[in-house]
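Might you be able to check the backbone structure tokens below? Thank you kindly.
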Amino acid sequence: MISVCKTFEFEAAHFLPFYKGACHNQHGHSYKLEVEVSGPIMDSGHNKGMVVDFKLLKKTVMDKIIERLDHKMLNTIYDNPTAEIMVCWIADVLNQAVPAPVVLTRVRLFETSSSFAEWRKD
């Protein structure tokens, strides 16, 4: 199995309604999203030598995730938009969208440059 990863960025605002501290107030983040998939290297067809066409991976993530979250107020999508809840939702959506035989193996969502939540396939 070989893994490939693509990185995305988006902007969004939120507040944490159950948090006691500054993040209880509305604020924004420049999110960074890393999506890793794994699979065999294709041995035929127009994608020979690839696990997945990066163009297809990009389109999938843009259509299913980025278009839904970019420049949005995340509290209209999630009751409690923590990085942990968001990364689980992203993984659930992408698990249904990634074409076989490729499998989603890791999703990492950075809320700041030094803080992230990560989902990994067990």
Notes: The chain has a mean pLDDT of 97. Strands lie at 2-14, 27-39, 72-73, 103-112, 115-120. The chain is about 25% helix and 35% strand. The domain at 2-120 is CATH 3.30.479.10 (Tetrahydropterin Synthase; Chain A).
